[in-house]
Write a structure and sequence with these properties.
- This protein has two helices and 26 strands.
- By secondary structure, the protein is mainly beta.
- It folds into two domains: 153 residues, Sandwich (Jelly Rolls), CATH 2.60.120.10; 104 residues, Jelly Rolls (Sandwich).
- The strands form six sheets. Strands 1-22-19-24-17-14-13 form a seven-stranded antiparallel β-sheet, with no helix packed on it.
- The structure holds fe (iii) ion.
- The site of fe (iii) ion has 6 residues, from strand 5 and strand 10.
Length: 291
């Protein structure tokens, strides 16, 4: 395998999102708009919430892309206009394909809001190819216990999408996507396949890393974009503490991106149509909970 080199390292920015929760955002920023087909990556927290202080994102629409939530700490409840409702626990993933449109809410559970506690997780936005933008919305709620984990020599890889070290993910994606949560103990080294046709990056969220054959130094909050010059990634933990990182990759769509708030389409006309449909109530609404 040829290890990919690093084309650039981008530090993330701190920002406030939704109902006012703190996120660390590698992109979009003024420096990186998107990494085709990835449109956004937000690290929510880690943030300690006092009782009554935890916030979420109340009812809002999406069309034309996918939102992927991966929770590490805390509990989140989601409800949507398709009638689904569920709770995400630490380690769980929700892969939502908004397609033609949904309205959903993403809130800490009532119990969590009351008790307070630590909240930590990720939200990733994945663009859909033009042919899938108006597909019927679908959900894949995957509990942590169903997500495969591979471990060897101080290396732990949770395979959320794609394949790593001979283990395949259970989540089905519209285009080939690699989504790994990698944990390396001090001194551990991971070498894993990243298909040659994938745009890919590493996001470090705990500890420090050396990435690529050039051993580029990364600190917490850094995103390292990989060059398209190989078919694998090499990542080391040079530190004294565990390293946690996400590895993301996908075949780029190479299609025009028209993006406005919660809608991501190919043309401005399609964005206008999304607003019209939304305001005309054609996204449906979240049914009130009974009982
Ligand atoms: Fe959302």
């Amino acid at each position: 395998m040829a290890n990919r080199s690093i084309v650039g390292v981008v530090p993330s920015t701190r920002t406030l999102e939704g109902g006012g929760f703190e996120v660390r955002r590698p992109f979009p920023t003024t420096r990186v708009d998107h990494v085709d087909p990835f449109l956004l990556l937000d690290e929510m927290g880690p943030q300690l919430h006092a009782p009554g202080a935890a916030k979420g994102a109340p009812d809002h629409p999406h069309r034309g892309f996918e939102t992927v939530t991966y929770l590490l700490e805390g509990t989140f409840e989601h409800a949507d206009s398709m009638g689904s409702r569920g709770v995400l626990q630490p380690g769980d993933v929700q892969w939502m394909t908004a397609g033609s449109g949904v309205i959903h809410s993403e809130m800490p559970t009532k119990e969590f809001q009351a008790s307070g506690g630590r909240l930590h997780g990720f939200q990733l936005w994945v663009n859909l190819p033009a042919r899938d933008k108006m597909m019927r919305p679908r959900y894949q709620d995957v509990p942590s216990a169903r997500i495969p984990v591979v471990e060897h020599d101080g290396v732990r890889v949770k395979v959320i999408a794609g394949e790593a070290l001979g283990t395949k993910a259970v989540i089905d994606t519209r285009i080939p996507i690699l989504y790994l949560h990698v944990t390396l103990q001090p001194g551990a080294v991971l070498e894993t396949a990243v298909p040659e046709d994938h745009n890919a990056f590493v996001y470090v969220f705990r500890g420090a890393a050396n990435a690529g054959p050039e051993e580029r130094a990364l600190v917490e909050g850094d995103m390292a974009v990989l060059a398209r010059d190989g078919d694998s990634l090499i990542l080391r933990n040079p530190g004294e503490a565990p390293l946690d990182a996400l590895v993301l990759g996908a075949v780029p769509l190479r299609e025009p991106v028209a993006r406005y708030g919660p809608f991501v389409m190919n043309t401005r006309e399609e964005i206008v149509a999304a607003f019209d449909d939304y305001h005309a109530g054609r996204f449906g609404k979240i049914a009130a909970q009974v009982g």
